[in-house]
Design a protein that fits this description.
This protein has 3 domains: 223 residues, no CATH class; 122 residues, no CATH class; 65 residues, no CATH class. The chain is built from 21 helices and 7 strands. A 7-stranded antiparallel sheet has the order 3-4-7-1-2-5-6. β1 and β2 form a beta hairpin. α12 runs antiparallel to α19 and α13 runs antiparallel to α19.
Length: 506
């Protein structure tokens, strides 16, 4: 009797699994058909099947990423941001069926709810609402859950599709500046390891890729000003909403283009140093702005070091208490609840706030707090020099920041075997740079402006990553826009290669 029941349950599970797989395959096939059949998704001059094969490549990489996280990190479950974002999107989606009005308040940032924050890990009710990039990824997943049936392949397909549209727009933006084979250039743009790896995921980078493509198309396409302005306005929510600092740096780097094009037409060599000196002087003159930026960087670095080293965030009625791993013996930690057993020091952190943490000495009073976030620390944690709210220290940290952001991991750094993939990627990029300068061509002024623009953007991004990020895995992930900018620059520099051209299959 028991065997028959177990057999029935197993058959039911197999039936449901087959339905899930069939639904996912049909969804992927439908997107592939759209990319292959509809001319709006084609790239003029490339084979009709290019976008379809690129999409299937991204799906394969996305499934590989899920497998790696499942087997390497997750112990049987997809771990890290991807699954968390998807799960919390389901939590937000469930709110709709209980209270549609409350759902839309959360979707549009009207409601900063403690009640909903208790149910999630990445949704905080703090002073960041719509612009909070983690919240926006959760919001997008919540929308997809209306038809995905919690099928991870459906979510992955949509994220890969959106990222691929970004790649297409980016390629269309720069193709007139590229002299090598166009088909080869498209795949070089698509396939750099970090770029395709992180933009084929359930995380922010996939949506950011769409924003970058829209932004580049607005700046570099040959369309009318009105159409380019529309693309620019559409790109801003994707940039600021999913990686605010990338959007900010892309816009700030435009100052060089404006000064170079309109103020220093006859003295191009002066445009870059004057732009840099102007920004530096502005930082010195406006003390409030300077101090505010330094403080935000200090807080960001502080938070990241806490995550990297490990620790526990306990939620009281008004704030978070942060405890280091070496303080756990002073706590009772059981089933998501935390109780103080012995006197100890801690840090007060406000909900989602960027205020500086406040030291506090706690005495046991029988209070029970919620264990919101606890981690033993990151395997690839590295020590970085604290900023400590000092503008001078921030400047002194520049060499360390650039070295860490550009070249870590080193072979002797801690971390899993995946670090060797990142090491090979760095080595491969250096070889590509050397080959490009060997095969470089003479550039025109607009192309030089693009290269300097990309360099300014890359340096700002690398500095932010190096200043604040003490975890190698995060460094590799965060620097993908710099890798993308580098590849774009190298494609522009390369002169035509003597290889057999691709025959147009149209």
């Amino acid at each position: 009797m028991m065997y028959d029941k177990l057999s029935q349950i197993l058959n039911l599970l197999l039936f449901l699994a087959k339905k899930v797989i069939i639904y996912a395959l049909l969804f992927i096939a439908a997107i592939s058909f759209v990319l292959w059949y509809f001319p709006v998704f084609h790239i003029k001059g490339l084979p009709q099947s290019t976008m379809m094969f690129a999409f299937l490549t991204k799906i394969f990489i996305g499934l590989l990423l899920i497998y790696i996280h499942t087997k390497t990190y997750g112990e049987g479950d997809l771990s890290h941001d991807g699954q968390t974002f998807m799960n919390e999107g389901k939590t937000l989606n469930d709110v709709f069926y209980k209270s549609p009005s409350y759902f839309f308040q959360l979707m549009f940032g009207v409601e900063q709810s403690l009640e909903f924050a208790y149910q999630t890990e990445y949704w905080s009710p703090g002073d960041l609402t719509i612009i909070n990039d983690s919240k926006n990824v959760i919001r997008l997943h919540a929308i997809i859950h209306f038809f995905s049936r919690n099928n991870i392949a459906i979510h992955l397909s949509i994220f890969c599709f959106l990222a691929l549209l970004g790649v297409k727009l980016l390629f269309l933006s720069i193709k007139r500046f590229i002299k090598i084979n166009q088909y080869l250039a498209f795949w070089i743009l698509l396939l750099p390891p970090s770029t395709i790896f992180w933009t084929s995921s359930l995380m922010k980078e996939s949506i950011l890729m769409l924003g970058i493509g829209l932004f580049a198309y607005a700046l570099l396409s040959a369309n009318s000003f009105k159409i380019r302005l529309i693309y620019f306005l559409i790109s801003i929510p994707f940039l600021i909403g999913f990686k605010p600092y990338v959007g900010l740096f892309l816009i700030l780097a435009l100052l060089y283009i404006l000064w170079s094009k309109y103020l220093f037409r006859d003295q191009q060599l002066l445009a870059l140093p004057i732009a840099i000196i102007s920004v530096f002087l502005a930082g010195l003159l406006f003390h409030g702005t300077r101090d505010n930026i330094v403080h935000h960087l200090t807080r960001k670095q502080f938070d990241f070091r806490n995550v990297g080293r490990g620790g526990l965030h306990a939620l009281s009625d008004t704030c978070f208490y942060y405890f280091r791993p070496d303080q756990y013996d002073r706590l009772s930690i059981n089933k998501g609840e935390v109780q103080l057993l012995k006197e100890t020091d801690a840090l007060i952190m406000r909900f989602g706030s960027t205020q500086e943490p406040i030291p506090i000495h706690l005495i046991p009073k029988g209070e029970i707090w919620k264990n919101v976030y606890q981690t033993p620390g990151c395997e690839s944690f590295i020590e970085i020099t604290p900023i400590n709210n000092s503008a001078i220290q921030l400047i002194q940290n520049i060499p360390e920041a650039l070295i860490n952001a550009l070249f870590r991991p080193f072979p002797n750094d801690a971390g899993s075997k995946l670090k060797y993939i990142a090491i090979l990627e760095i080595f491969g990029m250096l070889l590509f740079i050397a080959f490009t300068f060997w095969k470089r061509r003479k550039l025109q002024l607009p192309e030089k402006r693009i290269l300097i623009y990309l360099s300014i953007f890359s340096v700002m991004t690398l500095l932010l990553i190096g200043w604040t990020t003490p975890v190698i895995g995060a460094i590799v992930r965060y620097r993908f826009p710099v890798q993308l900018a580098t590849v774009i620059g190298l494609l522009i520099i390369l002169k035509p290669l003597k290889i057999k051209s691709w025959k147009n299959t149209y």
